[in-house]
Amino acid sequence: MRRRAAVLLATLAGAGAVALALAGGDEGAGLSTAVGGADHATAAVVAGHLPRAGAVADPRGAGAERVRYGESVGGRPLRAIRIGERSAERTVLIVGSIHGDEREGEEVVERLRRGADRFRADVWTILASNPDGARAGRRTNARGVDLNRNFPYRWRADEPPGSGYYQGPRPASEPETRALMRLIRRLDPALTIWYHQPWGQVLAPCRGSAKPEKRYARIAGMPVERCRGEELRGTVTSWEEHRDRSATAFVVELDGGELRDAEARRHARAARKLAHYGRR
Fold it and tell me: Is the domain defined by 82-276 classed in CATH 3.40.630.10?
């Protein structure tokens, strides 16, 4: 956690940096691009696809692309950085945190960004998908909604406001949720890895071979726990796998507390291996 600010500044530095803003709304919404500090309106967007953003300097010398895919309740930008091999057919999304008090997965994402040139897949990374919660050190977003209960699939109003697990007044009520849904629909990732804390397990479905989850766990040196969390409603992983039955989306529950360097290296290696191999 203490290394996070310096690494992120190094990753995003560079006079030629381009920030591509996905202005809120539905598919085909307008975009604006900031190049060297000047704003230029783009004419159109091909629905269902994210245009290429400009290169962002990487501390290892490899190129990356920085995309602004939305805005939080508190007005903070929601950003993703694209790394790896852009011509690859396989697309992967890796998210450091969705709960603002479970942030050690961000360390894994930062390590992956520093080794961007090692990927043989088209990899998109998000440091914190709930920046308001991360800033405040709380699980929920600025409106007190647990974003990982706010997705439409199997959503149900069963927790009161203020509980910490409040699912929101309706499915996809939060801008962070809707922005993630737009991004995932456009990227159509074959694999998504979501980092949480503090169970210290790789979560796997009750049924099926769970090969990706088992492979990750073996490389990272973690136990696999089947069925845990399967009963939860409105989660992003259940929504992802419901919308695309061929995709894999799973949770890596890190231990509580700060992630040690050796642990972060193992998790980064496991994520890199999974990016190259999977169900499709």
Answer: yes
